[in-house]
Amino acid sequence: MENEEIIRAVVYMLGADGDYDPREMQFLNNLCRQLELPRKCVIDAFRGINSGKTRIKIPADPEARSRIMDHLIDAAMSDGKIEDREGKALQRVSEKMGIPASEIAHRIGNRARQNAEPAYDIDALTADDLLSGGPKAGKRVLARCPKCGYEAIDPDDALIKGPHGSGECPFCGVIVDKYRESEV
Fold first, then answer.
1. Torsion angle (degrees, nearest 10) of CA 139, 169, 147, 27
2. What is the pLDDT of residues 47-77, one digit of tens each?
3. Coil, strand or helix: which one is 175?
4. Fewest CB within 10 A of the end CB: N or C in the chain?
5. Domain limits, the chain
6. Counting Cβ atoms within 10 Å, is residue 100 exposed (0-12), middle (13-18) or buried (19+)?
7. What is the DSSP string of 139-167?
8. 58: part of which helix (H) or strand (E)?
9. pTM surpassing 0.70?
10. How far apart are CA 106 and CA 110, in angstroms?
């Protein structure tokens, strides 16, 4: 399985509950580093999710299926809990992969015991910090993405100035004006 496909699957799972928690963004940032993938892969994955074109590809190889399932479980648990929609997404994917529900429950239980406490102070992090690898001292936030929390600190950031006037989040790809209109 290609690492880009893993990221697409993980972004799909992270969005299953309709919200991107900063801890989920930390997990995604760490996974990208681990897989040695550029930020563009994450942005492309978010754009695919937003357009409805991203689907999780089921690998033929059983080891690859197990590996992707581990990443999906880790993604679902990265904010400290598995929401109902994340659980249902895991169930659908595990059924398609032929992995029994009891095996998924066992893996989730093992991870819950291993990850009882997060190793970082989530209150001190923002989505922008997660992308860059750490908080920026003395930064002044000019705009914040209403969907994922990405923070623009540069006046020329795409979140503030999009190619057609409306800001576009460089992290999740949402068009800010359209997103706000859809929330009303």
1. -70
2. 877 777 767 788 888 888 888 899 999 988 8
3. strand
4. C
5. 3-114, 126-184
6. exposed
7. ----EE-TTT--EE-STT-TTTSBTTBS-
8. none
9. no
10. 6
